[in-house]
Structures are given as C-alpha cells and as structure tokens.
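Chain A, query sequence.
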Amino acid sequence: MPWRLRQAQEIERQLKECETRTRELERRGAVVEQSLRGEPGGEGGDESELMSEWFELVHEKTGLSRWEQELSIRARQLELEDRDARLQHQLSLPGCSAGVAEELRSVREQREHLMVMLEQDRLRYVEEDRDIETVMIRKGLQLPSVRRETGV
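Chain A, predicted structure.
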C-alpha cells in the first residue's frame, strides 16, 4: 500500500499548490478590480484589456477550484480503496461476519458514486466554460489564451 501513501502525499502537495496559486490570483484580481473602478492602488490601463485580464483571472481561479474539488474527490477515493482492501482481507478470514460484506458493498457503492460525480462535474464544467466564452465574445473581449487543464 505504499503507492496509496505516495498518491495521498502528491494530492496533498497539489492541494497546497492550488491554495498558493489561488491566493496569488486573488491578489492580482484585487488590483485589476481597483484599476477598473479607478481606485488608488490600481494600475490603470485600457478598460478592455483590464476586463480581459479579469475574465482570465476568474477563469483560472475557477479552474483551480475545480482542480481542488477533483483532488479532494481523489483523496476520498484513495481512502475508500484502502478501506476496500482491508475489508476484502477481513472477508477472506474464517468466521467473518455478514456485516463486513455489507460494509464492503457500501464502500464500493461510494466509490462508484464518486466516479459518477466526477463525470457529471466534467460535463457541467464544459457547459459553464462555453457560457463564459459566449459572454466574452459578445463583449468583444479576448478569450484566455492559456487554459489550465484540470482533468475536470
């Protein structure tokens, strides 16, 4: 089971990376918003460029939120895989109770539910991205040139 531990550690590292990047995006977003409102602390600039940057920041932050959600689900899947393996081992022992088989069934249902959730999220995200792109095109704003592939 060391591979599960390594995966859990990698998920934790990526979650921390998401958190750090999100804070950076929020700081930059605050500056862009101040610029758009003409407040002190803003950098000024062309309103169209600022709006494009703001949409890009929102898009990236949304991607990070999605990635964080997927990582959390993957962490839960690892927990369930570990529980599944332990229950399978218990089931192979003589004198195992029927409760172990029932718990194993429940764990497997939970794992399946997480897979369905991930797929539903992926489909919803595609639709949300399409809607945002439509709004940006209508407003004549440049679409984000770099997209973070989240796997979601």
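The helical segments are 2-37, 47-92, 98-138. Confidence is low (pLDDT under 50) at residues 146-152.
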